[in-house]
Amino acid sequence: MLIASGLVKRYGAVTALDGFDLRVEPGEIAGLVGHNGAGKTTFFEIAGGLTAPDAGHVHVKGDVGVAPQQLALYPTITVRETLRLFGGLAGLRGPPLAAAVGGTAEELALTDVLDRRVSVLSGGQQRRVQAATALLPGPDVLLLDEPTAGADPGTRAALLAAVRRRADGGATVVYCTHYLPELTELAATIAVARNGRVIARGTGAELLKDLPGEVRVTVEGGEEITVATTDPTATLAALLRDLDRPVRGIDIRQPSLDDLYRELSHAS
Fold first, then answer.
1. 11 shares its domain with 88
2. Are 197 and 213 in a shared domain?
3. By residue range, what is the domain housing residue 250?
4. Are 102 and 31 contained in the same domain?
5. What is the pLDDT of residues 173-221, one digit of tens each?
6. Is residue 267 part of a domain?
């Protein structure tokens, strides 16, 4: 479990967090989204114990694993040494450590590069190694800040599957991303941050229910008629009733997380 209450953090004249509240339960993946400067990384730094808030507090139940946005690896040691180092820091020793290293490497498709130095790995492989350092000890709380930034499709798929398995096993996960389809794949709840606060919180269905979708009808001659609507069925029926030309195509687009993100992050 993770509970952040009233977090405030200032850097000189800049207020990075201004009453930031977030509660995430065991087994839940909370997708944290917002524009640059919304306070997401500052929250991660506080929740991960890297810096202290000026006000408010964070309650974390259990151990924490952190994968920061910027790569934070030792380039001159091997992947195996890296994972053994981070596992050892988490208290693993002997056979349990070896089993955790092997299992996590297999899970994130790193087995073939275990004895390569981090510096010679591709960007996607380095992303997997960084995620593995957070996942390996089996922490109760996972903080993942843009873990798939710049990752190839294979890396992204492996990471998402690993994160989902951790949540299914009871871990509390906060997952920060600008790539919103990942949150749909993860069946994550959503927290939208703006100006250092969480301004919307809930499941995707809850947050999308009042947003308009779109009905697009293509008529003979190629003209498209597009209408934003919260009731696609009624809107489509009205359009078809009033049209005096043959219909060549119909497309109904439901509201998406991208629509929610744009609506809330630009709100006044």
1. yes
2. no
3. 209-255
4. yes
5. 999 988 888 999 999 999 999 899 999 999 988 888 878 888 999 998 8
6. no
Residue 120 forms part of a structural domain = yes
Domain match, 50 and 126 both: yes
Taking each continuous run of H as one helix and of E as one strand, the counts in the chain are 9, 12
Alpha-carbon dihedral angle through residues 41, 176, 205, 58, given to the nearest 10 degrees = -50
Task: Give the position of tokens 């952190």.
Answer: 66
Residue 86 has pLDDT above 80, yes or no: yes
Angle made by CA atoms 188, 17, 32, in degrees to the nearest 5: 10
The count of domains in the chain is: 2
Q: What is the pLDDT of residues 37-55, one digit of tens each?
A: 889 999 999 999 999 999 9
Integer Rg of the chain from CA: 22
The most confident of 6-15, 141-150, 214-223, by mean pLDDT: 6-15
Pairing of β 189-194 and β 29-33: parallel
Q: CB within 8 A of 203, min separation 6: which ones?
A: 189, 190
